[in-house]
Design goal:
Layout (H helix, E strand, L loop, with lengths): L1 E12 L2 E13 L4 E5 L6 H8 L7 E6 L2 E2 L5 H9 L1 E5 L10 H12 L3 H14 L15 H12 L6 E5 L7 H18 L2 E6 L2 H7 L2 E6 L2 E7 H6 L4 H6 L13 E9 L7 H9 L4 E10 L2 E11 L6 H9 L3 E4 L6 H5 L4
Parallel strand pairs: 3-8, 3-9, 6-7, 7-8
Antiparallel strand pairs: 1-2, 1-4, 4-5, 9-10, 11-13, 11-14, 12-13
Helix pairs in contact: 3-4, 3-5, 4-5, 5-6
The structure holds adenosine-5'-triphosphate.
Organism: Actinomadura rugatobispora
Pfam families: ABC_tran, NIL
Keywords: Amino-acid transport, ATP-binding, Cell membrane, Membrane, Nucleotide-binding, Translocase, Transport
């Protein structure tokens, strides 16, 4: 649904150049929720704003629903933008207008006749659960309600794509959860493709089907969430399923292994199977389990007696059980892990 190829954007001001987006390739499939994660300054906002050409990239290609946006003329681009809604961290509502007036605004701009507008506004407000607040003004609403107005307004042109710029960053955890639930619900009911940017792991964990990690203008890794988490060396797994940093340097005579597994750990008694098969003591150093997209994915850090070279059979045993197995080396220091989202 969204294809981004070799996209670059450089800001130039007062003789200084900042490469905000640096050769990004990204594919967002139709009907999925795709999260771009990264720290402040990573280039997320710039990337998102390039997708509806609020920001014009220096080079690269952006296709939305099969249309190459950079090749469109003014009128065609305006039409294409109707198919791309956007919501913002600070909602961007017009304080002088009522809730209904805010949602009607894009319909007026699109030239929807007055006779049709009221019904469409009512439909949109019902969709986001705000039908009873149509005549309220933004100042009378909570943050969550304001974002619901923002969502209703973004959906006015029946877009296929919704861009979300840190839509829950200004909200408390409970309200965040309800807005994320609404986005998931709209995604399913309307077949809406959602591209969101966030610095909150919680957002990715709760609703994203796929994700990318951005760092210094580049995509460090991207793909379906489940695949990413099971991929050896995954930064996302490191952040989403953190393990304690004990021990940063595996001591001589032991092997420290991070094992990533899917499904209930009870269904996969790999620790006891390993201990039984090789008559060894397996020490569990830490673990994390999360429910992601309906499946449980977990990571466990375990310690086996003996150096890695004497544990070849034991490691093969784990791999044969379909587990992702990563042997910790002295290079895996906390400092190396700290770099993950920077
Ligand atoms: N209009 C601008 N002019 C000059 N530099 C800019 C402009 N907008 C962004 N930048 C710079 O581009 C880089 C990427 O910024 P961007 O806002 O895209 O990152 P971000 O990941 O969205 O971070 P944040 O969450 O803080 O907005 C930063 O170094 C930023 O200072």
């Amino acid at each position: 649904m969204i294809q981004i190829e070799k996209l670059s954007k450089v800001y130039r001001s007062r003789g200084r150049e900042v490469t905000a987006v640096d050769g990004v390739d990204l594919t967002v499939r139709e009907g999925e929720i795709f999260g771009v994660l990264g720290r402040s300054g990573a280039g997320k906002s710039t990337l998102l704003r390039c997708v509806n050409l609020l920001e014009r990239p220096d080079s690269g290609r952006i296709a939305v629903d099969g249309r190459d946006l950079l090749s469109l003329d003014g009128r065609e681009l305006r039409r294409a933008r109707q198919g791309i809604g956007m919501i913002h961290q600070h909602f961007g509502l017009l304080s002088s207008r009522t809730v209904a007036g805010n949602v009607a605004f894009p319909l007026e701009v699109m030239g929807v006749p007055r006779s049709e507008r009221a019904a469409r506004v009512a439909e949109l407000l019902a969709l986001v659960g705000l039908d009873e607040h149509a005549q309220a003004h933004p100042a009378q609403l909570s943050g969550g309600q304001k974002q619901r107005v923002g969502i209703a307004r973004a959906l006015a042109g029946r877009p296929k794509v919704l861009l979300s710029d840190e839509a829950t960053s200004a909200l408390d955890p409970e309200t965040t959860a309800s807005i994320l639930e609404l986005l998931r619900d709209l995604n399913r009911r309307l077949g809406l493709t959602v591209l969101l940017i966030t610095h909150e792991m919680e957002v990715v964990k709760r609703i994203c089907d796929s994700a990318a990690i951005m760092r210094r203008g580049r995509v460090a890794e991207s793909g379906p969430l489940r695949e990413l988490l099971l991929r050896p060396g995954s930064e996302l797994a490191r952040d989403l399923l953190p393990l304690p940093d004990t021990p940063p340097h595996p001591g001589a005579g032991t092997t420290v292994v991070d094992v990533t597994f899917e499904g209930d750990s009870a269904d996969r008694p790999f620790v006891s199977s390993l201990a039984r098969t090789y008559s060894i003591d397996v020490n569990i150093l830490g673990g994390a389990v999360e429910r992601i997209g309906g499946t449980r994915i977990g990571r466990l850090r375990i310690e086996l007696p003996g150096d890695p070279d004497v544990n070849a059979a034991q490691l093969a045993h784990l791999r044969e059980a379909g587990l992702t197995v990563e042997v910790r080396t002295p290079a895996d220091t906390p400092a190396a892990e700290e770099a993950s989202l920077s």
